[in-house]
Records
---
Amino acid sequence: MHVNAPLVDISADFDTGNIQLLDGSDPSNIRLAILPDSCSAHFQWFHFRAEGLEVGRRHGFVITNAGQSSYPSAWQGYNTAASYDGVQWFRVPTEYDGQALRFNVTAEASGISFAYFEPYREARHFALIERARNLPGVQEIACGKSLQGRDIPLFRAGEGTAGKRKVWLIAQQHPGEHMAEWFMEGVIEALEQHQPWMEALLQQAELYLVLNMNPDGAFHGHLRTNAAGKDLNRAWQDSTPAQTPEVHFVRDHMALHGVDLFIDAHGDEEIPHVFTAACEGNPGYTPRLAALETAFRDALCQQTPDFQQVHGYTRDAPGQANMRLACNAVGQRFDCLAMTLEMPFKDHLDAPEPRAEWSGARSARLAQDLLKVVAGLVPRLR
Ligand code: GEM
Ligand code: ZN
């Protein structure tokens, strides 16, 4: 006698949530679809909770519209992030047939979460802001507002004294790239630990930090845009308070304080490696900047196996960079070392960790390694 399994409850009505339930009648074939960003066709980020699973029973999930996502080829070789408790995340084997994305789990508990990447939840974001606010030597020097009125604090580690180099780190312009705020958590941890190398860095530089550039998009489970459907990483020439206040706020404060080194933390859907993109296509690119980029990349390769220089974006031809991007706009405007840091949604195949692949913890660890490299590079920035 076939006993109907209890229906599995699928929910995404929480911060960073994104899924639409199409058909939950068969627990071995729960059919789902990812919803697009609010005012944009972009979609790829998903995060949902399944409750009412039968422990020991195999449950199957199908994301039926994966083939129409923003980066469909990115699903090749991708494994879904999963967690029973929302804290410990692991990957589940995932199949992509060119249209649908499929993953199964033999339930070890009655509830499980699935996401495109280990989510950086709003509660943790607020806690990180409080950790920064309570850090000795760190001030919240300004607070911008997102389009929907969420705070965007600008923190500075250092007193703003003349003569110190200004190192800016921003994150998650693209809200679905949650590894970016995990990276910023690593920056805050490094400041909390008062390691000698950090003290040496702060003797010669100040850190200007934006933990999450796009809190609206992160809250709504967006992949790429803010609440107005704008890609913030295309707004660095013509940001406006009405459509892209998040970028407008940071650009204003960069003009006020100056920039000697800029890191823009992102995630990449397709390339299973950690890498950087820089300013080789800028009209103002010079041998000095080229040498700094090489020194930075070589030093980070020496510092950690979680970085490499073989794989990455195609280099821009001379004078052909898209100057609407933060890295290129800031590098040009301030004639400084400026880089986009890309962390993978998959694994960093130069140092694979099959259980969780690329993760929040590895993103945070990368930040510590990157700051150690920055500490060694500060004397050369100007
Ligand atoms: C990327 S940055 C793209 C940089 N490309 C080159 N060739 N330098 C973006 O905004 O599209 C960052 C990201 O989305 O993660
Ligand atoms: Zn991005």
---
Amino acid sequence: MGMGQSFSSTLLRQELEKIFVSQQKNQQGHPATYIPELAKANRDHFSLALVTTQGEVLAFGDKEVRFTMQSTSKPFLYSLALKTKGPEFVHSKVGVEPTGEAFNSIIELEEKSHRPFNPMINSGAIATTSLIAGVTTDEKFLAIQKHFQELAGKPLDLDEKVYLSEKATAHRNRAISYLMKYFNVLEEDIEETLDVYFRQCSLLVTTVDLAMMAATLANKGRQPQAGKQVLSPEEVSRTLSLMFTCGMYDSAGEWAFNVGLPAKSGVSGAVFAVVPGKFGIAGFSPNIDEKGHSYRVSEAIKEFSKILNLSIFS
Ligand code: GLU
């Protein structure tokens, strides 16, 4: 079925349920351990959700379970930076090239400009965090939280434990930030910027919330249930382009080749993808592979895309 055709909810439900049941048996992978609090995740948790651009919701598994967004927040954070500062300013600080490197790579700055390669990796997201409007760290964090809440259409809480656990152990992200400060890519205070970055990584969502945020991107920036235009179509298309080329880190190429959808993963075990004009899909299972992607959810989205022929090039 090509992109011009629409899918009945019965078909979407049937196919997603089949995939959910088959992936439930997949025991590969383990929760992330470099953030100590994430290592405590329940390995059995698994959920998949889909939200259409009409606001229809389909969900399977542990749909009430909340998890921290981690890097699935990066596209949304980037979209707020675009809204706040405009594309020219944002891209004077952060590039648009995939790295072929891991999410936390130290080789994250371009050779001449010293900008982070793109906003979907840690360095780029830390740089975009510093562009969010606000005098204090609280003001900046609240601006991000408000933006995410508008996309999700509901209030989102902070997981204090995960936030503090990451803040206490984030030596690698600190190292990257010092380098960016040295090159003047990061103009704001390092610890303050990191504090806001860690907090927004620790915002709690369910798969339905994440699929709703994805559906807002699928719907050219209009939140499907509230009807509010949260982002402009231009902001959405820039965000989706970067998700497509950089969202899955060092497997972005393979993902583009096999799945063909803009997507983003996070080390908590969340992954979401966008089928422009149609729906957002998201999943959560804390067992991740060596590249930081949830095994069950990546396999589920890959399979779903194959069966329904969802690639944007199909
Ligand atoms: N908060 C995590 C970090 O900065 C996000 C990484 C990820 O989800 O890929 O290390």
